[in-house]
User: Fold these one by one.
Assistant:
Number 1:
Amino acid sequence: MKKLLALGLAAAMTVTGAALLASCTDDGDDTVKVGFIALHDSNSTYDKNFIDAIEAACDAKGVELVMKTGIPEDNTCYDAAADLVDQGCDVIFADSFGHEQFILQAAQEFPDVQFCHATGTLAHTAGVANHHNAFAHIYQGRYLAGVAAGMKLVEMYENDELTEKNFDEDGNIMIGYVGAYPYAEVISGFTSFFLGAQSVVEEEIEGVSISMEVQYTSSWFDETAERNSAENLISRGAALISQHADSMGAPSACESAGVPNVSYNGSTESSCPNTFIVSSYVNWEPYFEYMIDCVMNGEEIEADWTGTLETGSVALTELGAAAAEGTAEKIEEVKAQLEAGTLNVFDCSKFTVDGKHLTTYMADVDTDDNYTPDHEAIENGVFYESKHRSAPYFDIIIDGITELNRS
Amino acid sequence: MISFLTSAIEFGVIFLLGCVGEILTEKSGHLNLGIPGIMCMGAAGGCLGVKLCYLASPTPNAFLVVLMGILFAMLFAGALGGIYGVLTVSLRSNQNVTGLACTIFGVGFTSFFLNNAVLTEGVSANLSQAGLNFFNAPLPGANSLGWFGTIFLNHGVLVYLAIVIAVIAAVTLRYTKAGLNLRAIGESPATADAVGINVTRYKYTAIILGAAVAGLGGLTYVMDYMNGIVGSTVDQTIQGIGWLCIALVIFTMWRPALAILGSILFGALYILASYIKGISFVQMSLLNMIPFAVTILVLIVTSIIGNRETQPPASLGLSYFREDR
Amino acid sequence: MKNIKEPFIHITRREHMPLWQGLLIRVAAVVVALVLSAILISAAAPKSQGFFGFFGSLFSGAFGTERRIWLLFQNTFLLLGVAVALVVAFKMKFWNLGGNGQILMGCLASAICMYYLGGKLPDPVVWLLMLVSSLVAGGLWAVIPAIFKAFFNTNESLFTLMMNYIAMYLVSFFISLWYPNGTGAMPPLTDGALPAIGEGAMSRAILPVIVFAIVTLVIYAYLRFSKHGYEIALIGDSKNTARYAGINVKKVIIRTLILSGALCGLVGFVLTGSVNRMVSTSMDGNMGFTGIMVAWMGKLDPLIMAGVSLFINFLERGMAQVITDFGFTSEALSDIVVGLIYFFFIGCEFFILYRVHFAGSKNKRTPSPEIAEGEAPKETPLPEEEGAKEARS
């Protein structure tokens, strides 16, 4: 009896609920509706970057925004996308790498809705017209952040702040980098950072260069692992630390040890006033405005949209108090060269692999299970990053960089 | 190596506090699976305490900041412990279920509270300043005594407090009348009741005090270990630490004194992966399993040996009904 | 001997409470918790939709579109499956807290089959292997703690809890092994995936719904009507009584936990084979713990548990909508509301099971039913069982 009652209650609730709400799907008007899928929520610096940008863009364009946060990289993403379609969205954006497969699936099922995805790699080969990837030439931002780091290293060198353990056996200044995973986006990021710092140090100090140790944490967000990795790098002699990981673990270890830190995706000035130098980040607002414009005007969105310094997609935060004198001017100088095209970040004459300069490299641009290299990336002595697709594909470990751990 | 040992101690005391808190609770016969949530509440409360100091004055006194952090951490954690106490002692509800509910609530509440009530404009700067300068202020001599100074003297006040608490707990449980009474209740509440011990009062005291101590663990994580920087998944991290604390209680066979060494060992194992050169991700997964595998071994071995000294309190997990005596 | 003062308040077990009264108290407790949540949330929200808006959003999130209703039922039956798996052990007073790990092992076993054999062997063969390996993996994960409990009385709550973590790191081990250059998340495996039936949201939801509806009914019958079920209930009542009745307690514990773990493994099989087609360290969705709450709130009765599971999923999906509509940014709000409901429910149990007497009142102390030494009294004296017990003693 008791059980029948319980079942009956459950059934009654279901029916009432369904009846009450079958009416509740709205929309039928003509304003563009934008759907947004975030991996975490605005408490994560990675997602906050996207969330702030999309809210600003939707505000500016006067369109409606529906946000779904806390969507993990599994089938829930597909369900979330489909739910957004049900709610009448015209374009849906997802912010995390692992969302792509599910977004692609949804795109195939709902050909009238546009699906855009950050950091993804499949759009240019999948052949699904309404699935698009987007990223930015963030390596340029990293390079500039590296320039700031280099300036700081030079200042520390000249003020005799470096100790013996900060130099490796070849007399190069050591720096450290905390990365999440050993794949192209991260490798491209730390290599460009390294090259930026190296260019300044080699220019300003006679006969001294830098070397970098990289430690991976195998997680995008693991506070303790990031903090310990930074500590490990510092105890091994790093004079400066940068990272590509979403928590405050590494900046916190730097602040505690008094070691300068270059951050990513947001300024850490308020919590780390003594060691924050600068942070590079991707400003997504230009892309979002472009995306909304295309939908409003019925135009095609590019399969691989890659923002640049000109579009304002690649940006640096304000310099921290710890930055060296003259950093701002130097950054402007280098930035102008990058924009003019007179300076290339991955200039093959500026780095070597196994002692030799690269003249050719087949990058794995088209995603397949075997990671087969398929596109020649080097033209005229320059490795063109993010040219064949928006997501980075520079995954070479160059001389001067040592990985402390690998998969 | 030195940096590894220093970090192991600094991290280990977080486990120590959670473990000692849970030992106190379990000695009274209550298995509190809400410790993960309670430790989170401690972190939330502690941050609020520090924030209040800065609201009162832009350059607060270091001693006051630390004190307020500790008091509020114990308050918040003790409150959730109190809820667990009311439900399991007075209302005789199932301890596992109540503990799990406490964890679910505590973790969620902490995340929500920190992000909405504590971390308003400018507070994160205050918190990290407090964490770096006040909670992490080392003992004198830390920098001048070489490796000894770095490993043993270079810790914040909470680390030393944790060890003091563990020692006090060990001494109290073993040598004082109150400790004896508590242990008696844990073994057989009916017998203790018959002898005139106020079972209810002891249980509540043990549960709430245990929760307060565990809450300090959460405070230590945020303010000492993470230098006052509140990350956005702090609740998940502390929750994971909380479950390990429950494991550590078994590992140390319900002895606070053993917990001091055991917690540093656990702390070392937990952070080991970041300090080994050349380790692959695959190996890291295996490394991370070790604290749990070791705990299982201890569980098995102590139950096979069956030595009375190493067993859980006999009435652990059971509610006490005087009427059934 | 010290003089024991007569306490001001003393508590006695109720003999029995009419069914409708118990249900009413529980429903009232939940309603109070919900109303309290609604008040707090509509007062504190950045974009408050008001008190009734709270309930509107709850229902909209759970039932608003056909897709949402299918998802609700998919999650309800998955959670029910876990709860039923755990109930089998709980009836014996064996605290299987390892649901998460057992589910993950089922997911992992299926994923391993899909990864290594998918596309190389005919699909039906792969499915069969997936099913068998998931059941075995889940069963293994539960039976290891069970064996030690049976022979050495090792504490099962803690053992099964630790096994959860080992399972989690095993999963991350394999993901790192298979995708060394990846980001820790694996892409969906297409070979060997279970077939989708029907279209859209229904295609993934229908399998869990059917499978676990059947499982629930089967386990209900198993526990209620079979000899095994009787043995389980007897052991849960009192191990000594069961031994005197000639039951091989060790064997029953081991057998039952194999079943419990295997059922969790089955959930893993469905999760990896059909719903998600991949494995991740959080694929269990914490159902191992939520399942405990469902089992307990459902009074260890599979049919009531169905209603409880529906309610909890209704809350979770509804709260996601509330968070969006009310302008919150923190996902944690859902846990707070669910936690509150748990507290109220747990609290109200007391008033159902016990009657409070104040000192000096004229209520005669009702004699409590006999309970074996050292055992905790049974949670719910259902009228039938209570009467049967009286007859037996």
Number 2:
Amino acid sequence: MSNSEKNTVSNSGSPLGDRGFSLNYLEQLEAESIHIFREVAAQFEKPALLFSGGKDSITLVQLAKKAFAPGKIPFPLVHIDTGHNFPEALAYRDWLANEVGATLIVRKVEDTIKAKNLTEPKGKFASRNWLQTHTLLDTIEEFGFDACIGGARRDEEKARAKERIFSVRDDFGQWDPKLQRPELWNIYNGKINKGENVRVFPISNWTELDVWSYIRAEEITLPSIYFTHEREVIEYDGQLIAVSPFIRIDAEDVIIKKQVRYRTVGDMTCTAAVESYAATLDEVVNEIKLTRISERGETRIDDKVTEAAMEDRKKGGYF
Amino acid sequence: MDILRFITAGSVDDGKSTLIGRLLYDSKSILVDQLEAIEKSTKNKDNGEIDLALLTDGLRAEREQGITIDVAYRYFNTDKRKFIIADAPGHVQYTRNMITGASNVDLAIVLIDARHGVVEQTKRHSIIASLLGIPHVVVAINKIDLVNYSEDVYNNIVIEYNNLAQKLGIKNATYIPLSALRGDNIVEKSAQTPWYDGKPLLQFLEEVKIDNALNYEDARFQVQFVIRPQTEALHDYRGYAGKITSGVYKKGDKVKVLPAGIETTIDKIEIAGKEVAEAFAPQSVTILLEHDIDISRGDSIVKVEDDITATNEAEVLLCWLDEKPLQPGNKYILQHNTRRVKTVVKNLSYKIDVNTLAHVEDVQQIKLNEIVKASVKTAAPVVKDAYAANRSNGAAILIDETSNATVAAVIFQ
């Protein structure tokens, strides 16, 4: 980490130093996440890191790099490409995989739709978010992945708040919230039966602000869309949606240019931008500290459908 | 700024959800859209105040039944600390989920309804807190407004709980009279309780010392993963990756690898590929040794002068967590941090009644949520401490070989 702020990792605590043997909260979170990464590498035959191009999965890559240094990350990065991604996120994905020397596996939702004759969702912001579960489960089967590491955080949403760090899924990738394995101390039981797999969430205990503070402390490069830029958007239901070929522009929509940034990066069809002039990590962190609206509430269009939207998707095999 | 992890245990009626809602609300961790959603669902109620309990609303199955089934984790922070709350169910049939939530916290908040005093549930939660060695217990005497902020009621409950705490060996109990609903003694001291001279709850949580609960005397490290890049530049690199669970390690330390007992010296300690002179719990590090010896996952590296030994037999308390009862004589897998060994449970001596703490001699069958004193015999040696002396190296889990389920929490005696 850089020495530019208080949340730095010193080389070590010293009994003679003023900090003694204590870690600050980011160091504690980092140590816990590295421990989880190493458990995955040791307990599973074929793990994979699910990489979306968003800040949470970028943080995962940084932690994985640190967990196995000076060796390489001992599993591939897997991207389930909905075809609705931001081009900046795709470019960043290719750059990062190359930078850390990891194998990149890309599987396209488009291909699954064709191969399985799935029905594309319709509507103004027709999202393939739900369809990517099909591609994910096929990819797990194709490569025989027994553990998939994801960047979900428990502060995001109430179904996530209940999920274990090692979350066992059945043959169909389904999560049963009523029958979770007890997860005691820091002892992780990754033993599974054939066909089952485990979703692992190393940054479960991080909040959105923790992720941003860590990115700042570590000086991690992010895709450019996380910072202010001018973009053509339409305003819909109080949210700013980027103009793209993937959404339907109706006659009553007014296309405007705005200075925006993204607080979270998902599909262009289901992620809203926020108006912002924040051009640096410091400025973004300050905005996050002051915001009074939650990450999902501000930027995710897909969670609003039903009150239990995430719970239902997880039961169906979603991350 | 550091992290305090705490558990709140109790049922809906205790005001647990209201208390958590209050902490989140008063620390400004509730965001506008979340608040709007709650206001919408509270509209029909008469008093006009928002229902803070709805902030901790859970899964559909839980809403349907009006109870908490599993632990939910919640996060908030103040300028002084980041807080992780394990919001655990209080019903007896979900004791296993409470144990999950309680296993790695620094502090437990035990809620007592001022109108009812110490009840069966208070006892059960306190027994679990003491079994799991939670370093601090806050006894939140809630709904103090409903007993007219009575000092006598408060004092009686303190005396009553203190008796229980002594029996259980809970030393660090702190008593706070409060009203989660009205906000008395949560963030600010309440004018209604002038007789209370302690801190309000949030201030106590911000200031309570927690690092003294970590053991810095006994250095414990178990290998998680062996890093061998096998590249040209790092041809001979062999790093033992793992977490320091207690104590301090330095470059040059004379160490021994257990259970084999081979002695060597620490050549280097690295964190994220960078060399450091020393490292301490709970850091995740990579240790390089002077000699090339055969070490694999689960092996322990301890100081050469340490008198810890590897053992095949141990006295334990088992908290049974599975629907399938314990089958004495069956083989299970014992996982002690990163080490897995086959084990058999024998000599069941007594059950602990989690409501009364009484020892029950009838140990014919050990069912879900029961706690039993037993001994285990392992197929390969385990390098463990007594839980009471070193929490992070004194615990394990049992795994059912056939279902792969985690069936018991193991507390070494």
